[in-house]
Amino acid sequence: MDSAEETPAEMTSLLRSYEPSPEESARVHEEIQTHQRAIASIDEEIQALFRTMYTLRERRAQHEVQIKRCKGLITWARRMPPEVLAKIFLHCVEDGWNQAPLAVSMVCSSWRFAARNYPRVWSHVHVNMEEYDPVSRTRYWLTMARRSPLHVTIVADIETSELAEVIDILLEQASRWRSLSVVSSSLRKTNTILSRCKEATPDLREIQVTTDIEIDDVAAGNAAITGFWGSFQEAPRLRRLDLTSSTIHVAGSIPSQIEDLSINLQPSRRRVETPMTGSNILQMLEDLPNLKHFAINLSHHHEPPYVPERDLSRRIFLANLESMLLCVPPDVNGLMAHLVVPKLKQLQIRSNLDPLVRPHDLTGASLRELLEQSNPSLELLELHDVDLTDDDYTHCLSRLDSLRELRLHESEISDDVVRLLTGPRGRCPRLSRLDLRWCGQLTGSTMVELVRSRLAVDDHPIASSSVPIQEVAIINCAFVEEQDVLDLAAITVCRLILRETEDYCRSRGCCTNSRYRQRLRLRHNIGHTGTGLIHLIL
C-alpha cells in the first residue's frame, strides 16, 4: 500500500482524543495540504495521459481513413463494368429514386462515367414544379437522356408560370415518350397539362394520372377530367390508362385505343364530394371498343353517393373485354346487368366496405344477368366480402362450364350448393382450384367428399367430364376440422396460407392464421418424422 494512502500514527492517535491542541491542528492542516498537492500532481498526470490518448485516437482515425481509401480502390463497385453499374442505376430510378443519376455521379469517377455515358439512366424525367428552376433541370435531363425513350413524370401542385414552358420543352421530345405520369392536387392543372398533349406520341404506351378536386374547381363547374378531349389522338401504341382521383366523371373521350383501364377512386383531401353515376361509367366504357381489362377500385370504407343507371334496358357491348375487377360498394355491382361481355375470362367482385350480414340480392341478380346475356367462358370468379343466395349460386354455377378457379371470402355458401360440383358429371367440370375463406356454413366433410368424387373414373367419359381438384385453400372456415384438412391433404394439395402473388387479403390483413398453422404443425408433427403428408402447404 502506498505511504500516501496510510494514516500516520500521530493522526491515528488524534482520532482517540477528544479535542486536538493548536499544535495538533497545525499538523493536521499540513497533512491535508500534502494530500492536496499529491492530488494535483495526479490530475496533471491524468490530463497528460488524456492528451496522449486523444493524439493516439486521432492517429488511429487517420489510419482508418487510409484503410477505407485503399479498400475503395479495390472494391467490387470500382471493378464493375460500366454497363453493369448503369443497369444498377437504372433499377434505382425505376424503383422511384428519381435523383439517382445525380447522386451516383458524385460518388467517384467510374460511377460518374457510368451514369453520364449511358443515357437510359436519365430516361426517367421527373419534373417537380416546386423544385428550383424546373426549366433548366428539364433541359439538362433531356440532354443527358439523348435519344433514349422517355418516361415523363410531371408533379404540379403549385401555381407557377413556368409550367407552360416546361410542358413545351417536354412536348418537343414527345416522339420519344414511352410513358407519361401527371400528378397534381388540382384538377384544373391536370386538365391543363393533358389538354396540351396534342403532339404525336408514336411510342407512348401508358398514362398515369393522379389528381384531386379543389373547391374552386367545383365553384367553377369544372369537376370533371376534361383534358383527354382531343389529346393523344396520334398515339397508336397507347394501351394503358391508370387514373387515381376523387372523381370518376370523365368528360370527353378517353383515347379509344386504350385496352387496359384502371380507375382508383379515393376521398378528396379537401372533402369535396362528387357522386358516382352509373350512366357516366357506362358511357366511358362504351367509348372504349378495344378495352380488354377494366378495374375500378375504391379505397377501403370510401362510399361516395351513387346514382344508378335509370334505363334498365341499356346494354353496353364490350366485345374484347377479358377481365373485370370491381372493388366497390355492393350497390355499384348493378353495373354488371348493363354489360355484354362474351370474351370475359376473369371476374373479381369485391366489396370495399365491411362484409354484409346477408347475401346481396342486387349483386346476385346482376351477376346472373351478365352470365345469361353474355354467356362468357369465364375461368376465374372471385367474390370477396359480398355474398349470394343459394339460388343465385346454383344458377350461376350452372352457366360456368369453363370455370377453372373459384374464390370465396366471407361467404355463406351451403353444403348443398357445393355438392352440385361433385362427381364426374358435376357442374363446373373444368374447376380445378378452390379458395375458400371465412365460409361459415361449409363443412369439411363436404369438401373431402367433393375432392374424392372428382377423382373417380367416369365409366362413360365425355368431353364435359369433371377434372380433378388440383388445389384447395381453406382459411378460417369454422366447420372445417383439422382431420378434414389432413384428409384433403392426402388426396390433393391443401393450402392454409395466402397465395404468394396477387392476394388481396395480404394488404387487408384479414386472413392471418399463423397460430392455427403452428398448432396444426406441432400437434400432428408435420414436417418431421411423424407424418408422410406432402400436399399440405403451411
Automatic annotation (TrEMBL):
Residue ranges of region Disordered? 1-27
Kindly indicate where the leader peptide sits in this chain.
none
Q: Which domain of life is it from?
A: Eukaryota
Q: Report what the protein is called.
A: Uncharacterized protein
The record lists the organism as Heliocybe sulcata
The UniProt entry, under InterPro entries, shows: Leu-rich_rpt_Cys-con_subtyp (IPR006553), LRR_dom_sf (IPR032675)
